[in-house]
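lol ok so funny story. i was supposed to be doing the assay writeup but got distracted and ended up predicting the structure for this chain instead. priorities right. anyway since i did it might as well share w the group, maybe its usefull for someone
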Amino acid sequence: MGAHCLSVTRSCRCVGLARAAYYREPIAPAVRDAEIIGLLNELVEERPRRGFWKCCALIRRRGHQWNHKRVYRVYCSLKLNQKRRAKRRVPTRERQPLNVPAAPNLMWSADFVSDALYCGRRFRTFNIIDDFNREAVAIEIDTSITSRRLIRVFEQIQEQRGLPATLRVDNGPEFLGEAFIDWAKEQGMHVQHIQPGKPNQNAYIERFNRTYREELLDTYQFSTLDDVRELTYRWLTEYNEERPHDALDNRTPLECFIDHARGSSYELST
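and the output, tada:
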């Protein structure tokens, strides 16, 4: 056995290798498993979303008795083991009426809007409105907005005008984050989640998002985030102080707030 002067039998015994394996010519995996590879490719080509166990069952139905571990090894080597999207568990929500609050800062609505710069880089805007007079309270713009970022946004708003009694939102991960929920509870702000898949239950902010997209995001091409922020600031000023709203009897959100402060009574349409 070469320089060690050991027999093949003894050498194989030392390394735990069968003599038959020593004499057998090595076969490349692509050659050895060619039939399995061809069959898996055929099954996946027909139905790209087929999982391993479905493919394995179909292989068995065709009369092949390969061990499922061998088939899975080939399945993984072909990078067919796709990650399954786990179903997100959302607590049961009760439907709440979509009424117009009787005063400012009682009920706010918030949601996200997604868009892209001219270079293709995605960004998000976090929009907040007061349901009473449809005032756009704030629009935060960045490439990523997490639960902790929401806390900073609301802390800034709190210093300027306080927080609402209730915040109506959907079931996005940012609004379900433990950090944001705990902070809102400490501040006495109730976070009211709508039912999953029911955006009409947050209709005020959905309507605002549509206006924001049509009048600004879809109208301009933005090169940088600073461009988006600057034009959004100008648009917000016009929206709150100059643009009349049908739901406010053709008044602006600012005029509606002033009239409420003076004690005037108007019927706000829902």
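The chain has two domains: 2-77, 107-261. The beta strands are 107-116, 122-130, 135-142, 166-169, 190-193.
back to the writeup now i swear
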